[in-house]
Amino acid sequence: MKCRHSLFAAALCAPLMLSGCAAIPRDIQGNNSPILQKNFNQIHMAPNLYTGQQVRLGGRVINVINLPKQTLLEIAVLPLNSAARPQLNKPYQGRLIARSDRFLDPVNYRNHLLTVLGTLSGSEMGKIGSAPYTFVRLNIQGIQLWQVSETQPPVAAWDYGIGPNWPLSWQNQHNSDLGWGWYPILQPETASVH
């Protein structure tokens, strides 16, 4: 009898627990290897050590180069969260060149956030401005573009009592900075990746 109650409770709780998990889009799921979402700094220090291994990396597309039979994306790499989305509040870790066998329109990719799944193919020398740089190379197997949405808490159009909208002359006469009562508290804008 206890077993039935446990199974029933597990069946009820499983959807609730799974709803909190962030799903990784199918195009960038990969083969679940342990290297899949490795720290880019480790890969950048020894790219030939990881050649042929599947990885998931993401960031902001800096440049798109269309060639006759392929497209190269220069990506400024950001760490990824558990849902494989670039983390906007983290510093960039470096750059990589991602190669696709199909045409990718620069309008759809340049300056956008994305996550790519692919196999590492070593490194190549290039330049960022006039400074030499070693780029990690990756052959793309899947791409996920992300949209950034900025949210700002609503600000009330009115206040109750004496607050920051009270006439400045009254505050000066009564040596009061803010007064009393309810007034909206402004919070900084936040951005999230969807």
From TrEMBL:
<dbReference type="Pfam" id="PF03843">
    <property type="entry name" value="Slp"/>
</dbReference>
<keyword id="KW-0449">Lipoprotein</keyword>
<dbReference type="GO" id="GO:0019867">
    <property type="term" value="C:outer membrane"/>
</dbReference>
<protein>
    <submittedName>
        <fullName>Outer membrane lipoprotein, Slp family</fullName>
    </submittedName>
</protein>
<feature type="signal peptide">
    <location>
        <begin position="1"/>
        <end position="22"/>
    </location>
</feature>
<keyword id="KW-0732">Signal</keyword>
<dbReference type="InterPro" id="IPR004658">
    <property type="entry name" value="OMP_Slp"/>
</dbReference>
